[in-house]
Design goal:
Length: about 290
């Protein structure tokens, strides 16, 4: 069995998903194989290059600066914890990242995913290039689409770039030619919605052509929900952002567990939210000490 822990919109709280994954493993006895994160990491190595929205939030919440504080340069206690945990986090880009920083790292990499932190535990998945997780003869193929959609196709870093569209369409074409469907799609934005006018057309087009089992996304600020995508096959899941509520608790639906088991005739997928609001240790002012 392959087991994923899924998050979205961590906004600088890079250490928190690792701590929550550790707590899950300790309390359930079930190993996690990979942490998956659906964009808006808050990957800013330099405060001077943060966007206005992130700076505004950082003025009230130091956690927004978590990448700069804890992941640009290695800190021995964090390094020791991450080494013991031995888990990686696979992310797609959101719209609140230092895209120049990520562009430089991406251009240096020939792999589908590239590390961005001092511990080599946080990896960003390139748009349109699949990542295959393998364990004990089982495999799970993950496709990512980072950034957000823009119907004007502007070149700003937060929007899906032309080179990413080309990579994505080549991958889709190959899948259609070989009659192959990846297992999971992770994106930051939602599929384009003709009624609301929001979302990425690129995501909608991919979902119309490939039959994923699950699609996970964040970005919209809405609550956790699951519904059937327009293709009638894919389960589309909005992950709640990893934020604390007014009581200092984590909200329902901001950590999900996806279990995938190979069976005769195909793969069996089971998705369940982790009831984080019942965990008294992981509060706004105490989670770092857990």
């Amino acid at each position: 069995m392959i087991r994923l822990a899924l998050f979205a919109d961590i906004h600088g709280k890079f250490l928190l998903p690792f701590k929550l994954a550790h707590h899950y493993q300790q309390t359930t006895g079930k190993p996690i194989d990979l942490i998956v994160q659906c964009g808006d990491m808050g990957a800013f190595p330099d405060k001077g290059r943060m966007d206005k929205a992130t700076l505004r939030h950082a003025a009230r919440d130091r956690d927004e600066l978590g990448f700069m504080d804890d992941f640009v340069y290695a800190k021995p206690p964090i390094a020791q914890f991450l080494d013991r945990l031995n888990l990686n986090m696979l992310c797609v880009r959101g719209n609140h990242e230092d895209h120049e920083f990520l562009d430089e790292l991406e251009q240096q990499s020939v792999q589908a995913a590239f590390p961005i932190d001092a511990y080599r535990r946080v990896w960003v998945l390139k748009t349109g290039e699949p990542f295959v997780l393998q364990k004990d003869g089982e495999s799970l193929e993950i496709l990512g689409i980072g950034r957000i959609g823009d119907r004007k196709q502007r070149p700003h870093g937060e929007f899906i770039q032309e080179y990413e569209r080309q990579t994505l369409w080549r991958f889709v074409k190959d899948c259609l030619k070989n009659k192959h469907d990846p297992d999971v799609l992770i994106t930051h934005d939602q599929p384009a919605d003709s009624q609301s006018g929001y979302g990425a057309e690129e995501i909608a087009n991919v979902l119309n052509q490939l039959a994923f089992a699950y699609h996970f996304y964040g970005h919209t600020g809405e609550a956790y929900r699951q519904n059937l995508a327009d293709n009638g096959i894919t389960q589309s899941v909005k992950i709640k952002e990893l934020e604390f509520d007014r009581q200092g608790k984590l909200s329902e639906g901001c950590m999900l567990i996806l279990e995938v088991e190979q069976q005769e005739g195909g793969k069996q997928f089971t998705l369940s939210p982790v009831p984080l609001n019942e965990i008294i240790h992981f509060m706004r002012d105490t989670w770092r000490y857990c």
